[in-house]
């Protein structure tokens, strides 16, 4: 049955009105504060990586905008590209159960860039982040799984219009202008998932490119450029292009918009890898806690949602032996193996050296899956394993939800520790960490935007 909202008013008109009028409550402001800290910490952690250096090398303009962790200023578009790419680069950033999408890397990067360029204050920043992140989450619910099925990356696709709305809200643009920006963004959205074939870096690029596209769309609209107001629901619209296998259901996008903020359920990752791998790492850590040794294990079978298989489980032989550390982040067998052996799955587990470790490969090769038709994915991300040992003993563990999400949010202390660990990984000392923390708190409190402490 088609549950699409029957309306003569284009969807983009309603989204633009929301972006102009939204008044985020305090609970949403707290999530936005967490996003700012998480995204900038992750960007600095990745500052010395080859992909961030390549993104920096591609920059063509010097300017007033900060590339986090680097001692230079960039132009608006280059800063958004570099920071979004860095923030999403290790797949350790926030996610949304139901999407899945990564809002923070796109939206925070776009909004802080325009804030530095235009001299906006923290109040405008927080409002822009709230609007963009809310819309990005909601847009991912219109045609669940269909974007991935079509070969596109939801963060890249939904990030462009969400960033356009975020920038428009931060700048205080009127609804008619934001509507044009949304229309323009539909022609700038892009990002395919073929990176799964070889672990190349284009997934990392998607967040930065979407931030850049959203900025471009908003500023084009501000200058008078036009775009189709039927961008989402027209006969040649956004969802027909990027999610053609499902009829779009706009109820989750529009229902309660501005009154109920689903952004409050955003998840912050405890592990530096693909979203749906995380509950399985929790399961295998429970197995390790029993004292079982890798040599004791004959096999581990996991019940999984069908929609995760093509990205995280297949081809299974290749997932047992990912070609590099980045590909390992999207191999559930590898993630489980390092989680069992190391007791964690942080930045240090996903290196090119670690994926070649014989002990890791041997354990990963024992892990397989079976599709569970009752798995709730994508509405909820769960984990399961059944381990059979050499003596015939069987251990079974379940994780009913993703830690860090709505069911079990990461406490402030754990997120603060993650922020500090990311900065230290990037080479910041205690003094610089304290200075940056103070600057980010000023932004979150609605005061001035000064990101000098985020530079090297």
TrEMBL record:
Residues 16-249 form the MmgE/PrpD N-terminal domain. Residues 271-424 form the MmgE/PrpD C-terminal domain. Gene3D superfamilies: 2-methylcitrate dehydratase PrpD. It holds the Pfam family MmgE_PrpD_C. InterPro entries: MmgE/PrpD_sf, MmgE/PrpD_sf_1, MmgE/PrpD_sf_2, MmgE_PrpD, MmgE_PrpD_C, MmgE_PrpD_N. One of its GO terms (molecular function) is lyase activity. Transmembrane segments: none annotated. PANTHER family: 2-METHYLCITRATE DEHYDRATASE (PTHR16943:SF8), 2-METHYLCITRATE DEHYDRATASE-RELATED (PTHR16943). Belongs to the PrpD family. This is 2-methylcitrate dehydratase PrpD.
